[in-house]
Amino acid sequence: MTSSDLDRLWAVVPAGGAGTRLWPLSRARTPKFLLDLTGTGRTLIQGTIDRLAPLVGDRVVVVTGSAHEQAVRRQLPSVARVLAEPSPRDSMAAIGLAAAELEREDPDALIGSFAADHLITDEQAFAASVREAAGLAEAGWLVTIGIEPTAPATGFGYIRAGDAVPGFPTARAVTEFVEKPDVERARAYVASGEYRWNAGMFLCRATVLLDLLAEHHPDLAAGLRSIAADPSTLEARWPGLTRIAIDHAVAEPAAAAGRVAVVPGPFGWEDVGDFASLAALTSPDENGVRILGDESLVVSADASGLVVPAAGRTVAIVGLDDVVVVDTGDALLVTSYQRAQEVKAAVDELRRRGRTDLT
To answer: Whole-model pTM?
Structure first.
């Protein structure tokens, strides 16, 4: 990718979702992308912008819900462009709105979509993958960065890679996107070496994205372009837009037509999807307990697991292995690594009881 091409690359950062599997830390009013979950002093969205800055400078568009607009602006004072969605319409509308605005300003603009709440290690490898992907995008491809799998994970979608793309060092054509598999299929995918995890990172020309969308969802593409042409219509038009993910709206049909490429991402990646994954990012103390917060508040004996003493009071765990204890003062969660993916069930039950103040 040439320097002039790189000058046209914009980072689009969709910042949505409540992260219910990280309740009670993550809630509708304080979703996980606004939280410091690693103890670095930087929230997940701040870390995302820090990682992208060397590649795009100030060419960043954050798309978030109207309820979080002011919090995002406070955390990201250097980001001038924050688009506020009136209501959630899934990733296609969010990313497409940013693409439509950028297309009007520069028909040659390149965009890269990067989630606000993921963690990446080896930022040099990440930058190299983005640069190769941007070169492919300049050539007209819809490009995804596929994470090299480290285990037969069942919580991610997979990307199947086909033939090499001539002229690019690591890129391969995408033959299909695969939904979350069962364990047996996931093992076969990893063993084959043909599959990558789908982390939802896409790069392309803004015009290419919207034209691909227009082939399968013409009303949605037209609606986004209409809003970009007259932003005063956002509130009126937004509720009528089709609610669909970018994978289903564009990536899957484009892959079937041979128009998608994947660049493998040889870097550590984590979507911090539950407390078990969060624990893996936290170093254990001398007793083997992982603590996010003030270590002096945690007492343990013959126990292991993750403790988050966010309420500021002492938490003691005795004789339990792989336990998760999260104390926020107004709510207390106790579960295990094995059942961490099921925390959302507690949130659903609270909402059923009308306790939205806790969710």
So the answer is: 0.93
